[in-house]
Write a structure and sequence with these properties.
The chain is α+β, with helices and mostly antiparallel strands and 89 residues long. Helix content is 43%, strand content 19%.
Length: 89
């Protein structure tokens, strides 16, 4: 599966799980980072650096989503594998 399609499928999973995903400019000299799962005003969100490539965005999204219960959601094998790989990191 191409990185763009994987990213799209992971975004769909986040939507099903009701986890907002936002792409923003995050990296600064004082706070270098690429994003991930956070809690903002009591709500869990995935915030990811917008300038990253699709492959890295998908990796960070999978890493954040791997922390949730997605067992009862139908996933394509490539998406399930991405989540399992992220869990192993």
């Amino acid at each position: 599966m191409h990185a763009e399609e994987l990213l799209s499928r992971l975004e769909g999973l986040a939507e099903q799980l009701r986890i907002p995903v936002r792409y923003a400019s995050l990296a600064t000299e004082e706070l270098p980072g690429h994003g991930g799962l956070c809690i903002l005003r009591g709500e869990r969100r995935l915030i990811i650096e917008r300038t990253l490539g699709c492959r890295e965005k998908a990796r960070l999204l999978a890493k954040g989503l791997a922390q949730f219960d997605w067992d009862c959601v139908f996933l394509l094998p490539a998406v399930r594998q991405a989540l399992e790989d992220a869990t192993a990191e």
